[in-house]
Amino acid sequence: MKCDFNWSRFVAVLRWEMQSHKRFFVRKFAGVFFALMLLLYLIHFNNSGLVWLLGLFLFTFSVLGIGQLFYHLKTKQDYVSYLMLPASHLEKFVARWLMFTVVWTLIGLLGMIAAFLVTSLLGYIFGGWTSDIPTLLDLMRSWAVWDYSLSETLSLVIVVAWIHSIYLLGGTFFRRNAPLLTTVVVFAVGVLVAVILTKCLMRIDWDVYEVNQTVAYWYGTIGGSLWTILNYCLSFRIFKRFQIIAYKWINV
After folding, report:
1. Cβ neighbours of 16 (radius 10 Å)
2. Which of 125, 108, 93 has the alpha carbon at shortest distance from 56?
3. Which residues are CB-neighbours of 98 under 8 A, at least 6 positions away?
4. What dihedral do alpha carbons 2, 174, 97, 183 form, nearest 10°?
5. In terms of C-beta density within 10 A (0-12 exposed, 13-18 middle, 19 or more buried), how is residue 178 classed?
6. Each residue of 195-209: pLDDT tens digit?
7. Cβ-count burial 112-126 (b if 16+ within 10 Å, e if not)
8. 229-238 core/surface letters (b: 16 or more CB in 10 A; e: else)
9. Which of 94, 115, 171, 238 could lock 69 by a disulfide, CB 3.0 to 4.6 Å apart?
10. Are 8 and 86 in contact (CB under 8 A)?
């Protein structure tokens, strides 16, 4: 039963997940709500600036969420209780992924909408605040109307999925402070790769070599897709090897 998938067991695990983490999600919703309400009260952005700010906020919130995939596994008893759930590894992994990807992102989005509505209501009651409802409608309209090309859309999807998979891998591998440690590792590796690539590219005579942008685009697209799939496979493989008694900082 380690990797098979049964819908009845999966639904039962999903219900258990929602019941177990409801307080955690309520706290995160409250954090998003009060943080954005304070931000909207203190700073008034124009529409384009607000679109970028809230889009970046929601993306960062979503990425940090997948990095906290196994935040509740702190003690030996936590590991025993979770690993002994009557479900396969695949069912538990998919259920946890849904909770900390789909549900987590919805919580951030609902917190944003609630902050807009409450600040507008308080502004109407007490005066002195401008209504944020028109800004919210413009924001939702700008996200709904997608005027980018297919290649740009595909690139954006792959980049977002790749970053998501990196933090999924970090959230599965690290036992403590997974989002922070993943960010540190990504930054350190990025700096190292940038230095190596800079030194290598400086030795190339670009007057001799002609870069085909279409070929480079598809190499990057295929490479990014394969890397994302590899991160997901590694995350699941690590999850299957979870140990009750493991190292202090990692789960294997």
Report:
1. 16
2. 108
3. 14
4. -150
5. buried
6. 887 777 666 655 555
7. bebbbebbbeebeee
8. eebbeebbeb
9. 171
10. no
